[in-house]
Amino acid sequence: MQTMDAAGGLRGILDGLMKIDGITAAMVVGRDGFVIESATHGDGMESDTVGAIAASSFGSFGQMGGELRLGALDSILLEYEMGPVAVSPAGPDAVLAVVADQRANLGRLRIEMRKIRTAVANQL
């Protein structure tokens, strides 16, 4: 299954990602914490809040990697009781954040995010 739809812009890319079993939300967030584009299943999520926290966390963990001389941060994967949240860079100005439920395959989630983050960055 191909999740990338560059012809549909950011929304098309996120909609493709949303077709993966277990993914409940996907968003592109500027490094300033403002949501650029989002897609969700349902209406119970505050995308603006999640986006701000995702961008802030990515920046903080990136600084930690710099202090530890570990290089650039590639991704964050947080595992919660009800499902994971993954955050990955999407170029120098944004991050890609994905929320999933317990059905999500973490390996597939990481692979799909790596495949589309360049396409996301190219749309910005």
Q: Give the integer mean of the pLDDT values.
A: 90
Q: What are the low-pLDDT stretches, counting only 5+ consecutive residues below 50?
A: none
CATH topology: Beta-Lactamase
Number of H- or I-type helical stretches: 3
Radius of gyration: 13 Å
Please tally the β strands and state the result: 5
Q: Order of helices and strands, N to C?
A: HEEHEEEH
State the CATH architecture. Answer: 2-Layer Sandwich
What is the domain tally? 1
Helix content: 25-40%
Q: Sheet bearing the most strands, described? A: 5 strands, antiparallel
- How far the N terminus sits from the C terminus, by CA atoms, comes to 24 Å
Structural class: alpha+beta
Largest beta sheet: strand ordering: 2-1-5-4-3
CATH class: Alpha Beta
Give the CATH superfamily. Answer: Dynein light chain 2a, cytoplasmic
Net shape: globular
Beta-strand percentage? 25-35%
